[in-house]
Amino acid sequence: MSASPTALGMLDVNRSANSDAGADAAIERETAGDKARSGPDAAIGDRERYSRQVLFPGVGEAGQQLLGRAHVAIVGVGATGAATAGLLARAGVGHLALIDRDFVEPSNLQRQTLFDEEDAQAALPKAEAARRHLARINSSIRVTAHIADLVPQNAPQLLAADLVLDCTDNFETRYLINDLCVRDGRPWIYAAAVGAYAATMNILPKPAPGAESNEAGEDTAECRNTKPAIEPTACLACIFPSAPSGNLETCDTAGILSTAVNLAASIQATEALKFLTHQPHLMRRSLVSFDLWSPNAQGTMARSEISTGLPRPGCEVCDRRNFRALAGEQRPHITLCGRNSVQIHQHQHPIDLAGLKSRLERLEEVRNARSNGLLLRFTYSAYTLTVFPDGRALVQGTTDVGLARSLYARFLGS
Description:
Strand content: 15-25%
Structural class: alpha/beta
Strand order of the largest sheet: 3-2-1-4-5-6-7-8
Oligomer: single chain
Number of helices: 15
Number of domains: 2
Helix content: 25-40%
């Protein structure tokens, strides 16, 4: 199952002529307000919809109004991103921007809650499929889909929001998010899930110089001006100065429990609600992780927590303000090779070919995994991947760089 290069390119499907008519009508509405909608196209009013959430003292009427004016960018609409987007749409966040370069496949349906069998059979781009489902969940909010690979060139535009939520599967994109958000003083929340493991971390950067001018829009600027001051936390580079190396577990090699996904998404969405209702003092200041499957020696849930309350002195990003990922320096060198292939250079990501082959052989969708000690070659769907020990890979069957990067991250990590 594959997606065309055009389908996986940068596309704002908000105004696509082929989009579902009901979803398009919903997206054209302005950001949700606090008043109930009326008329035949909005039978469910906001007051009735959010009544139980408003009863919760942490939100209340004032908090619900703030949520309706908020703009959140969600990077990655796979398992965690789909769950988080669904939670925030039901909570009434006024504008959700969905950013994803991948398409829906049958193996996604076990854990990616916004997709169904029809989406997988049609190989719909995840951002667009999620947009359609969210429009049916809550027609009073605005949802925009960007079928795009987040890169330094488009990140400033796509991440222009009150809050950025990382729901990706690779550190390359996370470092890019971290660079941009630290540079612009924009809060973001990291979340990850693989196997039975779930983790999240809040990143609250120092305000950027001239923060009063906000590219996200007039309503958001007014909203920001009323926010309380926030003490900065550590950034991602404070905790992870460099990306983990070697063979990295991914959902496609280590598997994943939907329960781990939903735990990470629930924590991420809750922290987002605290921030969007102007209560950053309640946000957790730690990197917290859980193992839902294997208890610790005391028989309780295995959990670890690392304090992130203060930025690390000397951090290259938030202290020295050296934004290498945003400048494109940390991105693997990718070149088109031949008429129908892409070569990806990952010389800092050494691969254990024997270990990778053993894991790939357990996957039904992977065929003909074979290695001669110098390279590993295997087939997935219409694509053949050839992997070298230094991390370099050749992806045959496409000239779409975004798709090739997605396949690389899926089977080898990033």
